Amino acid sequence: MQRFKGKVVLVTGAGSGIGRASATRLAAEGGSVFCVDLDGDAAAATVAEIAREGGSASAWVCDVGNESSVCEAIEACIEAYGSLFGLVNMAGILRFDDTQELQTEQWQKIIDVNLTGTMFLCRAALPHLLETKGSIVNAASTAALSGLPCGLAYSASKGGVLAMTRSIAVEYAKRGVRANCICPGDINTGMTDKLTFPETMDYKLMPRIMSLSGAKDPEVVAGVIAMLVSDDGAHITGEDIRVDGGTLS
Ligand code: NAP
Fold first, then answer.
1. Of 69, 88, 89, 93, which is best to mutate to test ligand 1, by the most ligand atoms within 8 angstroms of its C-beta?
2. More confidently predicted of 34 and 212
3. Percent of the chain residues topping a pLDDT of 70
Protein backbone atom coordinates (compact mmCIF):
# COMPACT_ATOMS: atom_id res chain seq x y z
CA MET A 1 0.00 0.00 0.00
CA GLN A 2 1.42 3.41 -1.00
CA ARG A 3 -1.32 5.71 0.34
CA PHE A 4 1.15 8.54 1.08
CA LYS A 5 3.23 8.51 -2.10
CA GLY A 6 4.07 12.13 -2.93
CA LYS A 7 2.60 13.35 0.36
CA VAL A 8 4.27 14.99 3.34
CA VAL A 9 3.30 14.26 6.93
CA LEU A 10 4.64 15.97 10.05
CA VAL A 11 4.66 13.75 13.15
CA THR A 12 5.36 15.13 16.64
CA GLY A 13 6.65 12.85 19.36
CA ALA A 14 8.25 10.93 16.50
CA GLY A 15 11.18 9.82 18.63
CA SER A 16 9.25 7.34 20.74
CA GLY A 17 6.21 5.14 21.09
CA ILE A 18 3.12 5.86 19.02
CA GLY A 19 4.72 8.82 17.23
CA ARG A 20 7.69 6.70 16.19
CA ALA A 21 5.48 3.81 15.03
CA SER A 22 3.30 6.28 13.08
CA ALA A 23 6.30 7.88 11.38
CA THR A 24 7.67 4.50 10.25
CA ARG A 25 4.22 3.35 9.08
CA LEU A 26 3.55 6.54 7.09
CA ALA A 27 7.01 6.32 5.50
CA ALA A 28 6.52 2.62 4.70
CA GLU A 29 3.41 3.68 2.78
CA GLY A 30 5.43 6.11 0.66
CA GLY A 31 5.13 9.32 2.66
CA SER A 32 7.87 11.86 3.30
CA VAL A 33 7.84 12.20 7.07
CA PHE A 34 9.05 15.22 9.03
CA CYS A 35 9.92 13.73 12.43
CA VAL A 36 9.61 16.24 15.26
CA ASP A 37 10.62 15.61 18.86
CA LEU A 38 12.12 17.36 21.87
CA ASP A 39 14.80 14.68 21.85
CA GLY A 40 16.86 15.16 18.69
CA ASP A 41 18.72 11.86 19.03
CA ALA A 42 15.45 9.97 19.32
CA ALA A 43 14.01 11.71 16.25
CA ALA A 44 17.24 10.98 14.35
CA ALA A 45 16.98 7.30 15.35
CA THR A 46 13.48 7.14 13.87
CA VAL A 47 14.75 8.77 10.67
CA ALA A 48 17.62 6.26 10.49
CA GLU A 49 15.16 3.38 10.92
CA ILE A 50 13.00 4.78 8.10
CA ALA A 51 16.05 5.26 5.86
CA ARG A 52 17.16 1.63 6.46
CA GLU A 53 13.78 0.53 5.10
CA GLY A 54 14.21 2.78 2.04
CA GLY A 55 11.83 5.51 3.22
CA SER A 56 12.10 9.29 3.22
CA ALA A 57 12.25 11.28 6.46
CA SER A 58 14.04 14.08 8.26
CA ALA A 59 14.39 14.98 11.92
CA TRP A 60 13.69 18.28 13.65
CA VAL A 61 14.07 19.30 17.28
CA CYS A 62 11.08 21.22 18.61
CA ASP A 63 9.42 21.90 21.95
CA VAL A 64 5.74 21.72 21.03
CA GLY A 65 4.90 23.83 24.09
CA ASN A 66 6.91 26.73 22.69
CA GLU A 67 5.09 28.81 20.07
CA SER A 68 8.14 30.04 18.15
CA SER A 69 9.71 26.56 18.19
CA VAL A 70 6.52 25.20 16.59
CA CYS A 71 6.41 27.93 13.94
CA GLU A 72 10.05 27.22 13.08
CA ALA A 73 9.28 23.49 12.73
CA ILE A 74 6.38 24.10 10.33
CA GLU A 75 8.49 26.53 8.30
CA ALA A 76 11.37 24.04 8.15
CA CYS A 77 9.01 21.29 6.98
CA ILE A 78 7.64 23.48 4.18
CA GLU A 79 11.16 24.57 3.22
CA ALA A 80 12.33 20.94 3.09
CA TYR A 81 9.36 19.39 1.30
CA GLY A 82 7.27 22.23 -0.17
CA SER A 83 3.89 21.16 1.20
CA LEU A 84 2.10 19.46 4.07
CA PHE A 85 -0.68 16.89 3.76
CA GLY A 86 -0.83 15.34 7.23
CA LEU A 87 -0.27 16.48 10.81
CA VAL A 88 0.02 13.77 13.46
CA ASN A 89 0.30 15.27 16.95
CA MET A 90 1.64 12.55 19.26
CA ALA A 91 4.01 14.52 21.52
CA GLY A 92 2.73 14.31 25.06
CA ILE A 93 3.60 13.91 28.71
CA LEU A 94 1.89 12.16 31.60
CA ARG A 95 2.39 12.12 35.34
CA PHE A 96 0.22 11.04 38.23
CA ASP A 97 -0.29 13.26 41.26
CA ASP A 98 -2.63 13.13 44.20
CA THR A 99 -5.11 15.86 43.22
CA GLN A 100 -4.67 17.72 46.51
CA GLU A 101 -0.88 17.69 46.10
CA LEU A 102 -0.85 18.73 42.44
CA GLN A 103 1.55 21.64 41.96
CA THR A 104 0.34 24.46 39.72
CA GLU A 105 3.56 24.27 37.68
CA GLN A 106 2.99 20.54 37.01
CA TRP A 107 -0.58 21.28 35.90
CA GLN A 108 0.69 24.08 33.64
CA LYS A 109 3.44 21.97 32.09
CA ILE A 110 1.04 19.20 31.09
CA ILE A 111 -1.50 21.68 29.70
CA ASP A 112 1.29 23.55 27.85
CA VAL A 113 2.64 20.45 26.10
CA ASN A 114 -0.45 18.31 25.57
CA LEU A 115 -3.14 20.92 24.89
CA THR A 116 -1.52 24.25 23.97
CA GLY A 117 1.23 22.45 22.04
CA THR A 118 -1.34 20.59 19.97
CA MET A 119 -3.12 23.88 19.29
CA PHE A 120 0.16 25.57 18.22
CA LEU A 121 0.80 22.78 15.69
CA CYS A 122 -2.75 22.77 14.32
CA ARG A 123 -2.88 26.55 13.98
CA ALA A 124 0.47 26.82 12.21
CA ALA A 125 -0.22 23.84 9.93
CA LEU A 126 -3.75 24.79 8.84
CA PRO A 127 -2.77 27.24 6.05
CA HIS A 128 -0.70 24.46 4.46
CA LEU A 129 -3.32 21.75 5.06
CA LEU A 130 -5.90 23.95 3.31
CA GLU A 131 -3.72 23.90 0.19
CA THR A 132 -3.50 20.09 0.12
CA LYS A 133 -6.98 19.29 1.56
CA GLY A 134 -5.04 17.55 4.28
CA SER A 135 -5.80 15.93 7.58
CA ILE A 136 -4.97 16.18 11.29
CA VAL A 137 -4.80 13.35 13.83
CA ASN A 138 -4.41 14.39 17.46
CA ALA A 139 -3.62 12.22 20.47
CA ALA A 140 -6.42 12.28 22.99
CA SER A 141 -6.75 9.34 25.38
CA THR A 142 -9.24 7.11 27.13
CA ALA A 143 -8.54 9.61 29.94
CA ALA A 144 -10.56 12.14 27.90
CA LEU A 145 -13.57 9.81 28.02
CA SER A 146 -13.41 8.31 31.49
CA GLY A 147 -12.04 9.38 34.88
CA LEU A 148 -8.32 8.84 35.47
CA PRO A 149 -7.48 8.69 39.19
CA CYS A 150 -4.60 11.03 40.09
CA GLY A 151 -4.52 12.15 36.45
CA LEU A 152 -6.23 15.51 36.83
CA ALA A 153 -3.99 17.60 34.56
CA TYR A 154 -3.52 14.86 31.98
CA SER A 155 -7.23 14.09 31.65
CA ALA A 156 -8.06 17.82 31.45
CA SER A 157 -5.47 18.27 28.69
CA LYS A 158 -6.79 15.31 26.71
CA GLY A 159 -10.41 16.37 27.14
CA GLY A 160 -9.34 19.73 25.74
CA VAL A 161 -7.61 18.10 22.78
CA LEU A 162 -10.79 16.16 21.99
CA ALA A 163 -13.02 19.25 22.16
CA MET A 164 -10.55 21.35 20.17
CA THR A 165 -10.26 18.70 17.46
CA ARG A 166 -14.04 18.56 17.02
CA SER A 167 -14.12 22.35 16.70
CA ILE A 168 -11.43 22.30 14.00
CA ALA A 169 -13.30 19.50 12.20
CA VAL A 170 -16.52 21.52 12.08
CA GLU A 171 -14.86 24.82 11.17
CA TYR A 172 -12.83 23.34 8.31
CA ALA A 173 -15.09 20.58 6.97
CA LYS A 174 -16.40 22.60 4.02
CA ARG A 175 -12.84 23.67 3.17
CA GLY A 176 -11.67 20.07 2.86
CA VAL A 177 -9.49 19.69 5.96
CA ARG A 178 -10.32 16.83 8.35
CA ALA A 179 -9.40 16.54 12.04
CA ASN A 180 -9.75 13.45 14.21
CA CYS A 181 -8.52 12.07 17.52
CA ILE A 182 -7.27 8.71 18.54
CA CYS A 183 -7.84 7.60 22.12
CA PRO A 184 -5.22 4.95 22.88
CA GLY A 185 -5.23 2.89 26.04
CA ASP A 186 -2.65 0.53 27.53
CA ILE A 187 -0.01 0.83 24.79
CA ASN A 188 3.59 -0.18 25.64
CA THR A 189 5.72 2.94 25.12
CA GLY A 190 8.34 5.08 26.80
CA MET A 191 5.50 6.94 28.49
CA THR A 192 4.01 3.88 30.16
CA ASP A 193 7.45 2.42 31.02
CA LYS A 194 8.45 5.32 33.25
CA LEU A 195 5.23 5.92 35.20
CA THR A 196 5.27 6.44 38.94
CA PHE A 197 2.25 6.77 41.19
CA PRO A 198 1.55 8.72 44.39
CA GLU A 199 1.29 6.78 47.66
CA THR A 200 -2.40 7.63 47.90
CA MET A 201 -3.16 5.96 44.57
CA ASP A 202 -6.02 3.45 44.86
CA TYR A 203 -4.93 0.66 42.51
CA LYS A 204 -8.39 -0.91 42.61
CA LEU A 205 -9.44 1.94 40.32
CA MET A 206 -6.70 1.17 37.79
CA PRO A 207 -8.42 -1.63 35.81
CA ARG A 208 -10.40 1.15 34.17
CA ILE A 209 -7.26 1.94 32.17
CA MET A 210 -6.19 -1.66 31.47
CA SER A 211 -7.13 -3.25 28.15
CA LEU A 212 -9.14 -6.50 28.20
CA SER A 213 -6.65 -8.29 25.94
CA GLY A 214 -3.42 -7.04 27.53
CA ALA A 215 -1.10 -4.17 26.64
CA LYS A 216 -0.19 -3.83 22.98
CA ASP A 217 2.70 -2.32 21.02
CA PRO A 218 2.27 1.11 19.38
CA GLU A 219 1.94 -0.32 15.86
CA VAL A 220 -1.72 -1.14 16.64
CA VAL A 221 -2.34 2.60 16.97
CA ALA A 222 -0.14 3.60 14.03
CA GLY A 223 -2.28 1.61 11.59
CA VAL A 224 -5.42 3.46 12.69
CA ILE A 225 -3.62 6.81 12.47
CA ALA A 226 -2.47 5.99 8.92
CA MET A 227 -6.05 5.18 7.94
CA LEU A 228 -7.34 8.45 9.42
CA VAL A 229 -4.68 10.57 7.68
CA SER A 230 -5.17 8.80 4.35
CA ASP A 231 -8.01 9.14 1.87
CA ASP A 232 -9.44 5.91 3.32
CA GLY A 233 -10.64 8.22 6.08
CA ALA A 234 -12.10 10.72 3.60
CA HIS A 235 -15.56 10.79 5.22
CA ILE A 236 -14.33 10.70 8.83
CA THR A 237 -13.90 13.98 10.67
CA GLY A 238 -14.48 15.17 14.22
CA GLU A 239 -14.26 11.53 15.33
CA ASP A 240 -12.48 10.01 18.30
CA ILE A 241 -11.44 6.42 17.78
CA ARG A 242 -10.58 4.34 20.83
CA VAL A 243 -7.65 1.97 20.35
CA ASP A 244 -7.81 0.52 23.84
CA GLY A 245 -8.50 -3.20 23.51
CA GLY A 246 -12.05 -2.71 24.76
CA THR A 247 -11.22 -0.98 28.05
CA LEU A 248 -14.16 1.38 27.90
CA SER A 249 -16.49 -1.00 26.10
P1 NAP B 1 6.08 8.45 24.47
O2 NAP B 1 6.61 7.11 24.11
O3 NAP B 1 6.56 9.08 25.74
O4 NAP B 1 6.33 9.44 23.24
C5 NAP B 1 6.05 10.81 23.36
C6 NAP B 1 7.17 11.59 22.70
O7 NAP B 1 6.86 12.99 22.81
C8 NAP B 1 8.53 11.37 23.38
O9 NAP B 1 9.54 11.20 22.42
C10 NAP B 1 8.71 12.67 24.14
O11 NAP B 1 10.06 13.01 24.37
C12 NAP B 1 8.05 13.65 23.19
N13 NAP B 1 7.78 14.92 23.86
C14 NAP B 1 7.47 15.15 25.15
N15 NAP B 1 7.36 16.45 25.37
C16 NAP B 1 7.59 17.08 24.20
C17 NAP B 1 7.64 18.43 23.81
N18 NAP B 1 7.41 19.43 24.68
N19 NAP B 1 7.92 18.73 22.52
C20 NAP B 1 8.18 17.73 21.62
N21 NAP B 1 8.16 16.43 21.94
C22 NAP B 1 7.88 16.10 23.22
O23 NAP B 1 4.49 8.42 24.58
P24 NAP B 1 3.39 7.56 23.78
O25 NAP B 1 2.82 6.58 24.74
O26 NAP B 1 3.86 7.14 22.46
O27 NAP B 1 2.27 8.69 23.62
C28 NAP B 1 1.95 9.32 22.38
C29 NAP B 1 0.67 10.11 22.60
O30 NAP B 1 -0.40 9.19 22.88
C31 NAP B 1 0.75 11.05 23.81
O32 NAP B 1 0.10 12.26 23.51
C33 NAP B 1 0.02 10.31 24.89
O34 NAP B 1 -0.55 11.17 25.84
C35 NAP B 1 -1.02 9.54 24.09
N36 NAP B 1 -1.52 8.36 24.77
C37 NAP B 1 -0.72 7.28 25.01
C38 NAP B 1 -1.24 6.16 25.65
C39 NAP B 1 -0.44 4.92 25.92
O40 NAP B 1 -1.00 3.93 26.45
N41 NAP B 1 0.85 4.86 25.62
C42 NAP B 1 -2.58 6.16 26.06
C43 NAP B 1 -3.35 7.28 25.81
C44 NAP B 1 -2.82 8.38 25.15
P45 NAP B 1 10.70 12.60 25.78
O46 NAP B 1 10.74 11.12 25.81
O47 NAP B 1 12.04 13.28 25.73
O48 NAP B 1 9.78 13.16 26.84
1. 93
2. 34
3. 98
Give domain status of residue 248, yes or no.
no
Give the predicted TM-score (pTM) of the model: 0.98
Cβ neighbour number for residue 108 with a 10 Å cutoff: 13
Whether 246 maps to a domain, the answer reads: no
| SS3 of residue 220 by DSSP | helix
Measured from the CB, is residue 192 less than 6 Å from ligand 1?
Answer: yes
- In ligand 1, the atom with minimum distance to the C-alpha of 65 is 18
pLDDT digits 0-9 by tens, 4-15 = 999 999 999 999
Q: Among 10, 11, 18, 193, say which to mutate for ligand 1: greatest number of ligand atoms within 8 Å of CB.
A: 18
| In contact, 34 and 47? CB cutoff 8 Å | no
Length of the chain in terms of residues written: 249
Q: What is the pLDDT of residues 232-244, one digit of tens each?
A: 999 999 999 999 9
Q: Is 195 within the bounds of a domain?
A: yes
Ligand 1 atom 31, closest CA: 92
Q: Is the pLDDT of residue 206 over 90?
A: no
User: Count of domains in the chain?
Assistant: 1
Range 143-161 average pLDDT:
96
Is 1 within the bounds of a domain?
A: no
Give the domain CATH number at 36.
3.40.50.720
Structural domain boundaries enclosing 114: 8-241
The catalytic site residues sit at 154
Burial letters 196-205, b for 16+ CB under 10 A, else e: eeeeeeeeee
